[in-house]
User: What shape does this take?
Amino acid sequence: MAELLAASLIRDVPDFPKPGILFKDITPVLEDPKAFKEVIQLMAQDAKACGAEVIVGIESRGFVFGCPIALELDLPFAMTRKLGKLPFDKITEEYALEYGTNTVEMHVDAIKPGQKAYIVDDLLATGGTAAAAQRLIERLGGQVCGCGFMIELSFLKGREVLLGLPVKALLEF
Ligand code: AMP
Assistant: This one.
């Protein structure tokens, strides 16, 4: 397969948001319609192959990728949001970070019982965020058919946390 247009557009930003972290900045991909479209089409192909019935985006860069994938496939889009952002009845999941914890939420009606959900985010690191999204979806009676990321930081072994789930990443670092 020809190299992905987006591959050369990922910008490494050292020591953001704190010392020692090499941040993968995806904004140059969003500024290049050809590269962005290619990423969306490849991710949409995988979601379709998984039999997805709803696309679940993780706040906030998961929304940027998840929405066009949902539209491309003519599927509903659902959000997992950070604590306190969702207005309606919701459920909550906490997960561990390197220091402290984080909390994500979903509306109680975001997933229909039995629905096959495909989780989307820009980047897979430790897998904690996607695993929390999986728990939310399963608590609502849904079933996760796969997860898609533009980038995977494979040295952080996020796939091991998402054991049993098909995980697709377009670029590996
Ligand atoms: P994790 O739960 O560790 O898999 O972290 C995934 C989330 O954190 C995603 O929403 C990413 O956008 C963000 N993230 C973690 N590490 C990085 C990084 N090195 N560069 C850019 N985003 C990151």
In short: The chain has a mean pLDDT of 96. The beta strands are 11-14, 22-25, 54-58, 77-82, 90-96, 101-107, 116-124, 143-152, 167-172. Residues 33-49 form the longest helix (17 residues). The pocket of adenosine monophosphate is lined by residues 21-24, 58, 61, 121-129, 153, 158 (CB under 6 Å).
